[in-house]
């Protein structure tokens, strides 16, 4: 099933998406994290009810609203992008210049970053002049745990969605770490919905980013350097993951810094990101 968080008449609700239509669910649940945490108990009871509404007739909200859960992100996790990043001159950190790292680079984004599809992303022109886009497949934890082995990783994943890991490249380079360049307000659009894991083959998904209808990124998750089970094992080592936690798995080649000269986002740009079966995440930048 594809679960969406939407607002109708000013009230946030959880619904299901079928053929670009949304319907409410019973039993009624108003909180996505509550649904995820209780899904095993509720899944046999959940059914779509009431009027089927076109998606464009409701306000689509971020599936997991701030400040509910942790957002873990992975850097340099596609082979072609790792090469593009190493050659860009914008890389920072202890392994700067290395095309493929020995271990995953993991950082977080704060809750203030989260917005939904259709929301405006701020360019923060007073603090950065180099805002970039990054399409990412994000997984949502359903069954919590610590020290999760790779062999059991998929048992802990509830679903998948799209995340745009928006980045201020100058801040990322200047501060010699990832957080400050990734952490500005509105820098984590996500959605438009979460597809449950039984609907998704995460190891063979096509990703595409368009900026003003120009294709910039086009790849498949088969190009991941560290696969999803490896990421779950690494991040959960000594750290308890809980229902609703998000892990964004990295971006493929084609980001703005990969062009000569770099092509950063400008006021009025519209970025559309699509992943097989996960819909389209669209945001304008101002």
Structural description of this entry:
- The relative contact order is 0.21.
- It contains 6 helices and 19 strands.
- The chain is globular and about 55 Å long.
- Strands 1, 2, 3, 4, 5, 6, 7, 8, 11, 12, 14 and 17 form a 12-stranded mixed sheet that branches. Strands 9-19-18-15-16 form a 5-stranded mixed sheet, with no helix packed on it.
- The chain is mainly beta and 286 residues long.
- The chain has 2 domains: 2-59, no CATH class; 71-285, Alpha-Beta Complex (Fumarylacetoacetate hydrolase, domain 2).
| Secondary-structure class | mainly beta
Computed over alpha carbons, the radius of gyration is: 18 Å
Please name the fourth-level CATH homologous superfamily of the largest domain. Answer: Fumarylacetoacetase-like, C-terminal domain
Poorly predicted parts:
none
Shape descriptor = globular
Secondary structure: number of strands: 19
Helix content: 10-25%
What is the CATH topology classification name of the largest domain?
Fumarylacetoacetate hydrolase, domain 2
Q: How many domain units? A: 2
Structure annotation, total helices: 6
How far from one another are the termini? 34 Å
Average per-residue pLDDT, rounded, comes to 93
β-strand amount: 35-45%
The main sheet comes to: 12 strands, mixed
Assigned CATH architecture of the largest domain: Alpha-Beta Complex
Quick one: CATH class of the largest domain? Answer: Alpha Beta
């Amino acid at each position: 099933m594809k679960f969406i968080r939407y607002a109708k008449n000013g009230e946030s609700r959880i619904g299901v998406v079928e053929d670009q239509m949304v319907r409410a669910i019973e039993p009624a649940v108003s909180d996505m994290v509550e649904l995820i945490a209780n899904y095993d108990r509720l899944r046999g009871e959940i059914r779509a009810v009431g009027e089927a509404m076109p998606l464009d007739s409701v306000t689509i909200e971020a599936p997991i609203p701030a400040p509910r859960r942790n957002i873990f992100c992975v850097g340099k996790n596609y082979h072609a992008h790792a090469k593009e990043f190493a050659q860009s001159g914008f890389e920072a950190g202890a392994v700067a210049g290395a095309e493929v790292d020995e271990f995953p680079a993991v950082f977080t984004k704060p809750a203030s970053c989260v917005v939904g599809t259709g929301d405006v992303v701020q360019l923060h022109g007073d603090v950065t002049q180099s805002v970039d886009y990054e399409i990412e497949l994000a997984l949502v934890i359903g069954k919590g745990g610590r020290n999760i082995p790779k062999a059991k990783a998929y048992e802990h994943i509830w679903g998948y969605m799209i995340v745009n890991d928006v980045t201020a490249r100058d801040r990322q380079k200047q501060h010699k770490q990832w957080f400050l360049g990734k952490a500005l307000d509105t820098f984590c659009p996500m959605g438009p919905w979460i597809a449950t894991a039984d609907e998704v083959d995460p190891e063979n998904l096509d990703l595409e980013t368009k900026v003003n209808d120009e294709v910039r990124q086009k790849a498949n998750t088969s190009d991941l350097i560290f696969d999803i089970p490896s990421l779950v094992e690494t991040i959960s080592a000594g750290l308890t993951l809980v229902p609703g936690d998000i892990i964004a798995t990295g971006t493929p080649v084609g980001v703005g810094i990969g062009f000569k000269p770099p092509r950063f986002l400008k006021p009025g740009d519209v970025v559309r990101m699509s992943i097989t079966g996960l819909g389209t995440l669209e945001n304008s930048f101002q």
